[in-house]
Amino acid sequence: MKVAKTANEAFAEAMRQIDPDVVAAYPITPATEIVQIFSQFVADGLVKTEFVAVESEHSAMSACIGASASGARAMTGTSSQGLALMWEMLYIASALRLPIIMAVVNRALSAPINIHCDHSDTLGARDSGWIQIYSENVQETYDNVIQAVRIAEHPDVKLPVMVTTDGFILSHCLETMDMLTDEEVKEFIGNPPERENLLKSIEEGKPITIGALDLQDYYFEHKRQQSEAMKNALKVIPQIGKEFGEKFGRSYDFFEKYNLDDAEVGIVVMGSTAGTGKEIVDEMRKEGKKVGLLKLRVFRPFPFNQLSEVLSHLKVVGVM
């Protein structure tokens, strides 16, 4: 179904179709609309989600951690300073291997105060153990959120995922997109796989501890498992992107090449910059210049082997 949506609306609609158990959020520009729209879905009874209106973004992630540790599908949304306020909890969410999904609208970090887009918020969180997926347009914003659920919950991964879209450039701009039916989304994400959680352990009479003190003997072992999970995501992400393409006609990988194979000069970009970049590539190609573009979609895990292979033939590479 073709519809006109902003990226914020696309985020909210995808969340409605996913129908998570818990959404905890605190509004912040330019991501406010995501949870505002979703809260209306809750009020109208369109989802079964428990919506928790918290006092800060730190609390939002804390609530998502508690919900996910109890076995719930948990989601949130934020931007810029809000993501920065979550910093401490980002590391806890990933280290506890909780498949939380976060919609992030990229916005510059102050100061000076700037409500518009750059990627300093999510790039600042690059080593927090979260998978990071960037979107070029509204369609990708929507598709990426749906795939993120499968990636995060995959038994070989079990890591939180942040899906990003560019503030105002995409978050508040209408674009035409193809929207899946509710049934198609539910079938694609399926039921969450069984995993250890607090409530299940109590019900079964075998209570567990989550987030306990970890000393030298086991701390390294658990951090190694977390690192291996990120490596496993290098296999899982393209598999799910391919499956999505087979079902819905739009395939996804770590990156997209645009006129790159025969290029002598290329640029590497992320997010909505790719749309403008492709236009420039087209113009320069008409002038006879062998230029191309690589749009990086997945920044964590960083696909360095794949990137080096597709960029190795270029005489000049510009990274924006």
Describe the structure.
Helix 2 links the parallel strand 2 and strand 3. The protein has 320 residues and is of the alpha/beta class. Helix content is 44%, strand content 18%. Helix 1 runs parallel beside helix 7. It is globular, with a radius of gyration of 20 Å. The model has no long low-confidence stretch (mean pLDDT 97). It has twelve helices and 13 strands. It has a seven-stranded mixed sheet with strand order 3-2-4-5-7-6-12, sandwiched between helices.
Descriptive terms for the model:
four-stranded mixed β-sheet, 18% strand, 12 helices, 44% helix, alpha/beta, seven-stranded mixed β-sheet, 320 residues, globular
Radius of gyration: 20 Å
Mean pLDDT, all residues:
97
The helix content is 40-55%
User: What is the number of beta strands?
Assistant: 13
Poorly predicted runs of 5 or more residues: none
| Sheet having the most strands | 7 strands, mixed
Cα separation of the termini: 34 Å
Series of secondary-structure elements, N-terminal to C-terminal? EHEHEHEHHEHEHEEHHHEEHEEHE
Strand content: 15-25%
What structural class do you assign from the helix and strand content? Answer: alpha/beta
Largest sheet strand order: 3-2-4-5-7-6-12
Give the number of helices. Answer: 12
In one word, what is the shape? globular
Set down the secondary structure blueprint.
Elements: E1 2-5, H1 7-18, E2 22-25, H2 32-43, E3 50-53, H3 57-69, E4 74-78, H4 80-85, H5 87-95, E5 101-106, H6 120-124, E6 131-134, H7 138-153, E7 161-166, E8 175-178, H8 182-189, H9 198-203, H10 216-248, E9 255-258, E10 265-269, H11 273-286, E11 291-296, E12 298-300, H12 304-311, E13 316-319
Parallel strand pairs: 2-3, 2-4, 4-5, 5-7, 6-7, 10-11, 10-13
Antiparallel strand pairs: 1-8, 6-12, 9-11
